[in-house]
Amino acid sequence: MARINLNTPDIMDAKEASIIWGHAENYVRRTYQQNPDKFPNGSIRKFGKQWIVTTEGMEAITGTKDPRKQNND
C-alpha cells in the first residue's frame, strides 16, 4: 500500500484552496457540483462534511499553477 503524507501542503481543504487560488470560499465545491470531470481522478474527496482537494486538482480546475510556488521559480 502506498504511503500518503498528510503533512504535505499539496493536500488542503476546499475553502483554503479556493482562497489560495484567489476565488470565493465555495469555488471548489461549486465547481465539483457543476463539473466533477474537471478534477483528475483522486484529486478531490469528501470526508464527512469536509471537502479535501490536492494541488493537482486545483491546477486542473483553475488552469493556474500553485500561487504559493510561483514566487519561488
Give a description of the structure.
This protein has one domain (about 10-65). Strand 2 and strand 3 (about 50-55) form a beta hairpin. It contains four helices and three strands; from the N terminus they run E-H-H-E-E-H-H. About 35% of the residues lie in helices and about 15% in strands. The model has no long low-confidence stretch (mean pLDDT about 95). It is of the alpha+beta class and about 70 residues long. Strands 1-3-2 form a three-stranded antiparallel sheet. InterPro entries: HTH_59_Firmicutes_type (IPR045403).
Provide the gyration radius in Å. Answer: 12 Å
Q: Report on the biggest sheet.
A: 3 strands, antiparallel
Question: What distance separates the N and C termini?
Answer: 33 Å
Global morphology: globular
Counted beta strands:
3
- The helix/strand order is EHHEEHH
Q: Class by helix and strand content?
A: alpha+beta
Q: Provide the spatial order of strands within the biggest beta sheet.
A: 1-3-2
Mean pLDDT, as a whole number?
A: 94
Give me the number of helical elements: 4
> What's the domain count?
1
Spans with pLDDT under 50 lasting ≥5 residues?
A: none
Q: How helix-rich are the residues, as a percent range?
A: 25-40%
Strand composition percent: 15-25%
